[in-house]
Task: structure prediction
Amino acid sequence: MQKRIVLDLDLCCGCRSCEAACKVAFKGEARIRHGDIGGTAYLPLACKHCKQPLCLASCPVEAITKDENTGLVTRSAMVCIGCKSCAFACPFGVIDAPLVRHISQKCSLCADREEGPRCVAACSSGALQWLSDEEIEQHEIGMRMVSKDLFFRRKA
Amino acid sequence: MKNIDPNTITVKRALCPFCSYGCEFGVVFNDFGIKGVEYIKDGNSNGRLCPRGSAAAMYLDHPRRLAAPTTGGKSIAWNKMAKELSKAVGNPKKVAITFDRNITDEEYAAIIGWCKSIGIENTASTYFEPENSLRSFLDQSFAEDDLEKAKMIVVLGDLFNQAPMSSRGIIEWKMKDKKNQIVVIDSVRTHTAGFANLFLRTNVGTEPLLLLALAGTNTEGIDVAKATGIDTSIIKGLSGAMQKNEKGIVFVSLPFGRTYDPGLFAEGLRRIRDVSGAKIVPFVEFAGYHGSQGFASILDMAKKKKIKHLINFGELFPFYYPQLAADLKDINVYATATLKHGLYAMLPVPLNLEKQGTVTTTFGKRKLPGGIESPSGSRTIEEILSMLSGDFGKGKTPAAADHKLDVSGRARRVAEMSSSKKKTLKLVGEKLAYSFLGFLEGETLKINPVDAEEFGIRAQDTVTVKSKHGVVDLPAKITEDVSPGVLAVPAETPGVRGLFDYELDSELDAVNFIPTEVKICRKE
Result:
């Protein structure tokens, strides 16, 4: 079953617990970052594990592969040559351009952890959720406050 | 011989000691040492953990972790350090004992008992203002049910950064009913303010005046609206709503160097509680403990050479307060520590994460489970005290001193500080969860676009910030979150914390760190 990290923008309080959890687990390499969207919102950005990943298409050495069963897009540290093609190809800008240990940094959805991604587990306000496509359809993510007033975060 | 297997892991439960929320989490070990943290679903925070909790693994395994006593930057044996300390406490009248963060109730009782057994009378808390003033409100513990019953929520400061775990309940409370309104009072626009139905951005340091006005205190001769920057009609409306609303909650988290008068701030909160019945719920770094006197007296004794030695049991003092070094230069300072800091005489102790014992949280007393091994060279506080003087009992801990405040005089002073006509830049502290002790990210200076333009500063430029106590270079973040004339920085490292000015509060016998006048320039 394919599951995704979903952000409920209504709940995100900007504490960056997700980023800290990732950074600590991967020894200083946070693969979920925070974006400041033109002073309107401040939110975590992680790999979407796209259905048709442009990072995969751009990789010259096939270091990036997609598991069709789980939907997980992974990068092999052994194969990556650090050319940054994936970082430039990613339409969401979630693969960091600076290299760490000469390779690009890519979210693995904490494949080593049965319970799912650490950023979701750590999220202090419950804004990040780990949901299947069916569960996403049943949820009204960010439909309570944010969608009613796009600038509610900046009203202050 | 045991085979090393990196896949075999052990998870040891711990209670996060880095704020008064007290989250439970697991520390993950494999055969090579600490691997990380685990998010325990059946813990009190349902596995959720803020950046400070996640950084716990980095703290335990920090490359600067202190593992042997040191003097002048050089390691010495414990028996030599014990000999030196025994000699120092030989004349108890010339000794002061202080305590700040990273001790348990049991250790505090042991320190007080030990002081009594050898005749040391000067004890004080080095867990400084502003949070020290909020300690008294921890006597009334808070429960999640209180939030469900609340009819109104007022938040002072950046609660969602001080205690991110509190955010979920408060946001859900807001979304539950359109009538549920959140009021946020702060001098800096924060993420917490982003969730407010009404955000009152006060002039820097004037929160105590607003609190007194909300409590209906007659501050004759003071134009509160002018001093605080909050319109009189808004103050009257909110004051009326708070006083009518018995089931209100005031959440408080006040960062370092944020207000001109923390004592008056606490008095304002007490008066709001008295007139409205609102529950005051502080979220602080640590609950702290009372001494026989305030630290202002100890500092005065050090300056007048009435004491020769100061021994601090805790974690931050004196390392995080370099501005006090000049006042302490004539005495010998010994301090327990967990990380290596400069040239002070340091005694390695376990972190609260590694201890068994009791701590005070916003939700009441909680037990530290222990079970995580501390560095081999560290000694518990009880062990250190035993090295110095064999047997000692548990002491009766001193009660909080009852101080009378000149409320109108103090209020006038805050108003005067706020209304200075001289154009200055004021530096205030921030409490960002992500900047915890500088482990996860360094400090950034927030500056208003108007000031940035005036000083020719662009985003990410390095800015030199100079106060009368020190100079620090910081990357700039240009934002309207701070008003013109205000700079904000997380005071998480000794260098930045050391920029802040302090005042000795004779009424409360306290040392107050206040918004500080600084000069800035773009570093070429």
In short: Residues 262-276 of chain B form the longest helix (15 residues). Chain B touches chain A through 37 residues (CB under 8 Å). Chain B has a mean pLDDT of 92.
